[in-house]
Each structure stands twice: as C-alpha cells, then as structure tokens.
Design goal:
Length: about 800
C-alpha cells in the first residue's frame, strides 16, 4: 500500500538543546471498531489505567489530572492531553515528546478487548525549534514511514500532505489512513487553533504570582471560562508558568495549552465533537482570539465520518476574524471521505495581501455551470466564493496563465484569430474573485454594494451578484441592469441623493426601498412618488485629498442634519440610517474613521428626536486595490474595523447592517484595454536633438481615456508587437511614415533588451486635447502593432463618448488568469 505524499519542509538535523519550550503539539487520533462483536461495551475506556500509564510513559508524559462524564474520559498530561472514547482515542503531546512510540502499545491494549484500528489521523504544526526534536519528529517524511508501518494497510494506504506555504512557520502536517471495510462513524467536526506571539498582558495571566495564582484564577481572569460556558472544566497551572485545560460537554471536548514565555509564546485551542448546529464557529474563534490576542495564528478544520456539506452550518463558511487577514488557505480531501482545510492569519498592520479562506466543504462553493439565467430566481444568486465563472453568454472564459505575458499572448491570438481592428477590453474574472476574498477577509462586517456607475459591464455585474454583492445604483438604467440579474431588492440601494421623479417611481415598482437623501426637497419627492422608501441621510464627510472629491455636490452639512431628520419624521418617512462618502480614490485613512464617528452621533441624534432605531450604515466608497492611486486597502480596512468596533460595537449594535460602495476596488484592476496603433510619425526635438516617436491609437480622451480628465487617472502602457512580429492584423499597414522593427521576433517574445524611445500617444479624434500620454518610453512600433493598458476598469468606458464618430470599445473578452476554476 503506497502512501500518497507531498514532501515536507524540514530537513533532519542533529538534535540540539532547545532555547525555549516547544509549544506546537503532535496529535494522534485513532478510531477503532469491533469486527467480531466480542468487544467490551465500554470499548477503549475498559483499558486498565496501568496500561494507559505505560503507553504515556513511552511517549514521555504522565497524567496530572482527570475529568470524566458518562461518554468519555479526559486527562490533562504533563505535556498536553489525552481523551479516551469507547471507540476513539486522542493524544496530544508537546515539547520533545515521542508520541509515535505510544502506537504499538495502544494497538496491543485495544486488541486485548477485540478492537481493531480502522482510521488514523496524525497532525502537527511546524515546530518553533525543529532542531531540538528527536528523530523522527524533525522530518515529516520519517514520521509518515512509521505511521504507514502501523496504518498503511487501511484502505489504499495513507495520505500525507503539508498544507500552506512550507517556507512559513505556520503550516500543517497531516496524515490520514482509513479502512474501506469498517462502517463509518457518526459525523465529527474538529477545530484546532495554533497561536504564536501572544499579547504580553494576556500571556502574563498564566504565571504564578508570589501570592499564588491558581489554575481556576487563570481560567476565570483570561476569559477561558466563557469560551464554552456550559462545559465542565479541568484545569492545571504549571510552576512557574504555563497552563493546560480540558473540558467535557456531552460527547464533545475542548482543550487548551499555553506556553506564555516571551520569545516563544504559544497557545493552542481544540474542540472536537460539537455539531455545527451547537456551536457558531466564527463567534468561538473571536472569543478565543480575545483571550490570547496572538499576532499570528492558524486554524485547521477537519471532518470525519458521515459529514455532509448541507449540515456544515457555520463550519462550512470561511472564517474571517476582525483585525486579521488570511495569508494562506489550503484544503485537501483525505481518505475515508474526510476533509481538512487549513488557514493562516496575521494581525493587520497595513498593506498586507490577503486571501479569502476556503470553506470546509467544496460542495458549498459549487454552483451550476450554466450561469445565472433566471431573472427572478433567488436560488440562482446563491453566493459562491471560488473560481466559478457565472457567464451568462455561451463560450465561457478562457483559462490562461497568471502573468502579463500570458495576457499579452491571449490578446495577440484574439487579434490574429478575428482580424479585428477595433480596440477591446479583457476582463480577468480571477481578479474579481480574488478582490472579493480580500474584501470579505479584511472587512467581514461591511457588505460590499458595488457602485454600478464605475463600470456596468454585464459580466462583471453578474460575477459580483453571484459572489453575493449588493449594488449601488444612481439611475433607472443602472437599476434595470441589476434587477435583470435577479438581485433581491434589499441588496440594492438607490444612492443618488437627488433623483428624477420617474427614476424614483421605477425604484418603487422594483421594490427597492433603500435610498439616500441630503435635502428637504428630496424628502418631499420621496413622499409623493415612493412613500414606502427607507431613507439614509447622507452627510458630508470629505477627504480633501481624494482623487475625486464629492462633498462640493453631495452631503448635508452638519448643521442641516437635525432639521432634515425632523422633516422626515413629520412626513412619516422611515429613516433607516445614515450614509457618507469620503470621495472616490481616498487618500486619508482617517477620513473613514471620522465619518463613522460622525455617523454614530447622527444615530444618537435621531434617537433623541424619537425616530425609530436606525439599522443601516453606509460608509460609501473610495477604496482602491493594491497598485492603485490612493490609501492602501489593508490600512483603510484596519481603521474602519477599529472605528466600527468603537462606535458600532457588535455587542450592542449587532442589528445594524453596514454596507460600503466600492467601485474601482473591484473594477479597476480587473480590466485591460488593447488598442491598435494605426499611425506613427518620427520627429526631432530641438532641445537635445532627440528623436520622438508619435503614435495614433483607436481609443483616446473622448473614449476610454476620459479617465485622465474626469478620474485624474495615471495610465501605464506596454507594447504588443503584432504586425512587427510577423503576425499581422487587419489594421496593419506598411505606410511610408511607419518605422518597422525586426520581423524575426517570436510572437510571445518579451521586450527585453530592446531599445526604447521617447514617445507620444494620441487618440483618434481631431482634437489636440486628445493626447493620451505625452512622455512615455516605448520600443519602435509600426502600424498594426498594439498597445495594452492595464488597470482600465474604473470610470473608463462607462464615461466615454462617441465624439468625432469614434465609439467607446464595446467588445470585452473574458479570461480566468491562473488555475482553472473549481467546478
């Protein structure tokens, strides 16, 4: 029976003295069955205590306290914990213990009561001090060899893998083997957290003081008692520091082990046996983090037995704790139909890249591949998270590589296969999905309502709808574009504070009730045309350095707000909440925090007027993905999270729905624009006698590049030789004023070591204003070559015109950069 194995990261080195205590545990879980029906009804609980002591002695640990109930026995060990169920045993040992030496003694004791092993799971993190581990524990390959010796006969052999980035501290080593003959046990869910770099004040609670701090004191003062409040706890305090705890509750257990010393501080938390209906995973993780406040932590979620995705509840939803970003997430299906998903998290310090955690069951993410064709079906909009392309048209999206060169190769092939001359866009669906994961990981309390005005591409809207986004619309046309996708009315906000009467009527027909206002006149319009509207008072909260300030046009001044709330009350219009917008492309992270602070004051102001309690906060837009001009998203998310917790704490404001209006965050990076070079001219500048090459392209200031005027964008560009590489296109020409470059260059050859020339890029219209870039360095191109402009999704084609008869590009092709989507 060969083991399926992914190589581990450690290289075995000679054992050396450890500079600190090793907190990361080795964990062994072995499940048994009775093939002949002769076993003692108590199962493994019938193993004599002296045999258990001998087994633990081989692993180099001893029992220090015990706690049992009618269903299983638990033991706190000198080096972690032991749990004995009738058909299952779990042993966790830390330090330099030799856990695998307990296996033959365990199997021997089980055989005496007619039990045979039918499943084994071994797991551990990456050690803080790997060189201090005795053989074979410094090398996962060698551990697997031993595990295969005892359990490799089960099923088709074991499966071993190292989850997460093997170069990082927090990764997860797991081995699972399972019999195909033994009946599957009932479903079991296990969660394990490993936390390092604990908050010093939190860690200090686990030292004995001169006046003696008992284990019970530590349990109470740290908040551990409140983690699972109905469980019975057996705790133990070590001298001079350190703490262990086991709890029992029905058929479920939890355990905590803490090494508080600075420099190698560590805490672990585990639960096993709780069903998703009994325990909300996200809330539990938040409570655990509140006890220890680690800088870095990981979560392993695993299943065994007859688990089903539809029963997973909150355990099948990605975990996104506030104040942290997910830095890695991996999932594997293991033998016996079990799953393991592993996430690593770091505290947000600003600027970190993030990913969205994977769900426990892949089935929870899957959606029908035929897209979202049903206009009004709520089921058709069931959110999903990973790699699925909700294309509403036939043909789908092409999977390509993740680099700019892969994108250029796709564009070149598209040009050559279609012979097209018109400029076109390419939308990378993988970027949209990645940005969605980042948002949900960094700001789980803020539901994104995409600002349609930024880019109304129907496939982008469809993708975001499928992901579960809401939408910010500002006109009847935008409203229709969203409602045609079947988006629920409660996930739409008409966020234009001053609306045409016919547009208000259309919103009322569609059942869209949420809208913003900032004037008394708007309230009278709403009373006449949409009396059921639920309004949000938009107040002015400017970031003066934003790329596009909005306060000069929208947002009630502070001294106007009280009167506006009075008018709404008099008219009988429901005030659902408040809204603000710091400006598009925000530059000051504090602007969001100040806006949230002011919003809370308006909540209190409305309450003082006797208005019903507000239940909605709209923090607007201004968000930029990494690489865009503006405040870093991670920094903004961190400040927003802190401000929300201060002014809208979950404990007292849980009923307040918090939304944002991101536009460019999702759109800007996802689109690239390909344009044809249809004219070129070489001129010499008098200053320095320099040669300047001028190019004409088939899109410009009056088209997609209007973003230079209206959005204050900064463009970048790269050359894409097509005609000059021998590929040709319908737009190619050999005009006399076009300089030709080498024709023996391969289609996909990168432009390395190619001489660059100062260049000017003009748009196609007759207006001299239509100058796209006036000082850019490019290789020598000819007519029929192309240029690629990345990050062209925000306020580009949505604001273009057909001046001079040159239309905005209307063609968009769809790709999925990176791996193929998981269906």
């Amino acid at each position: 029976m060969g083991v399926s194995f992914i190589p581990a990261d450690e290289v075995m080195e000679p054992v050396v003295a450890s500079p600190g205590f090793e907190g990361f545990e080795k964990r062994l879980e072995v499940e048994f069955w009775d093939p002949l029906g002769f076993a003692n009804p108590s199962g493994l609980r019938a193993i004599p205590r002296n045999e258990i002591d001998t087994m633990l002695s081989a692993a180099e640990c001893t029992i220090v306290s015990a706690l049992s109930n009618s269903q299983f026995d638990s033991y706190v060990l000198s080096e972690s914990s032991l749990f004995v169920y009738p058909s299952k045993i779990v042993i966790k040992t830390c330090g330099t213990t030799q856990l695998l030496k307990a296996i033959p003694l365990l199997l021997k004791s089980a055989s005496f009561i007619s039990l045979e092993a039918c499943r084994c799971k071994y797991s551990r993190g990456t050690f803080i001090f790997p060189s201090a581990q005795p053989s074979p524990y410094g090398n996962f390959n060698e551990e697997v060899v031993i595990l295969e010796k005892y359990f490799g006969h089960l099923g088709n052999g074991g499966k071993a893998c190292v989850m997460s980035d093997a170069s990082k501290m927090h990764n997860w080593h797991v081995y699972v083997a399972a019999s195909e003959v033994a009946p599957l046990s009932s479903e079991t869910y296990t969660m394990e957290m490993c936390m390092t770099q604990l908050d010093r004040s939190s860690a200090a609670l686990f030292y004995k003081s001169p006046f003696y701090r008992s284990a019970a004191d530590m349990t109470l003062l740290s908040g551990i008692r409140n983690l699972l409040p109905h469980s019975e706890i057996c705790d133990f305090a070590f001298d001079p520091c350190g703490y262990s705890m086991n709890s029992v509750e029905g058929n479920a257990h939890s355990t905590i082990h803490i090494t508080p010393e600075d420099g190698f501080s560590y805490a672990s938390f585990e639960t096993m046996g709780y069903s998703p209906s009994m325990l909300d995973l996200g809330s539990l993780v938040d409570r655990v983090l509140g006890c220890f406040k680690p800088a870095v932590f990981s979560i392993s979620l695993s299943t065994a037995g007859l688990c089903h995705s539809q029963d997973a509840g909150s355990w099948g939803v990605p975990v996104c704790p506030r104040g942290y970003v997910c830095s890695g997430t991996t999932r594997h299906e293991m033998p016996g139909g079990s799953f393991v998903v592993y996430h690593t998290y770091t505290r947000i310090l600003g600027g970190d890249s993030t990913v969205m955690p994977l769900a426990l069951f892949p089935a929870l993410e899957k959606v029908a591949s035929n897209g979202y064709k049903s206009k009004n079906s709520e089921a058709s909009l069931k959110p999903f998270l990973y790699g699925v392309q909700p294309l509403r048209e036939s043909g789908g999206a092409e999977v390509i590589g993740p680099t700019a060169r892969d994108m250029d190769s796709f564009i070149r092939k598209k040009i050559q296969s279609t012979g097209r001359e018109d400029a076109f866009y390419v939308l990378d669906l993988a970027t949209v999905t990645r940005l969605w994961k980042i948002w949900k990981s960094a700001m789980p309390r803020v539901h994104p309502f995409y600002a349609v005005k930024c880019n109304p591409d129907p496939q982008l809207l469809s993708m975001l709808a499928a992901l579960g986004a809401g939408f910010d619309v500002a006109s009847k046309a935008e409203l229709e574009a969203v409602t045609q996708l079947g988006v629920a009315p409660r996930n739409i906000i008409f966020a234009n504070p001053c609306k045409l009467p016919s547009h208000i009527t259309e919103a009322a027909k569609a059942g869209v009730v949420y809208t913003t206002f900032d004037s008394e006149g708007e309230l009278y319009k709403l009373k006449k045309y949409h009396p059921q509207a639920e309004v949000l008072l938009r107040f002015r909260a400017d970031d003066t350095g934003a790329r596009c300030p909005l306060g000069v046009k929208y947002g009630a001044e502070w001294d106007e707000c009280y009167h506006l709330l009075e008018v709404a009350k008099t008219l009988g219009i429901k005030v659902a909440g408040v809204a603000f917008h710091v400006g598009s492309g925000a530059s000051d992270v504090n602007a969001f925090a100040e806006g949230i602070k002011a919003a809370r004051k308006l909540f209190d102001m409305a309450e003082s007027l006797g208005l019903p309690r507000m239940t909605m906060l709209d923090i607007g837009g201004g968000f930029v993905s990494d690489g865009g001009a503006g405040v870093k998203f991670a920094a903004a998310a961190y400040e927003i999270g802190n401000a929300l917790e201060e002014h809208f704490p979950r404990e007292t404001m849980a009923d307040v729905r918090i939304i944002g209006e991101p536009g460019r965050f999702f759109a800007e990076e996802a689109f690239s624009l390909a344009v044809l070079v249809f004219g070129c001219r070489v001129r010499r500048r008098e200053e320095g006698n320099k040669t300047v090459v001028e190019y004409w392209i088939n899109d410009g200031i009056y088209g997609s590049m209007n973003c230079l005027l209206y959005d204050h964008a900064t463009l970048s560009v790269r050359a894409l030789p097509v005609a000059s590489s021998g590929g040709g296109s319908s737009g190619s020409s050999s005009g006399s004023d076009c300089e030709s470059s080498s024709e023996d260059e391969e289609d996909d050859a990168p432009l390395l070591d190619v001489e660059l020339h100062p260049s000017i890029i003009f748009g196609p219209t007759c207006d001299g204003l239509d100058t796209v870039l006036s000082d850019v360095w490019l290789p020598r191109l000819q007519c029929g070559d192309w240029l690629v402009f990345p990050r062209m999704g925000a306020y580009t084609k949505s604001a273009g015109s057909s001046f001079n008869g040159f239309a905005v590009p209307d063609a968009t092709f769809y790709v999925h950069c990176g791996a193929a989507p998981e269906m």
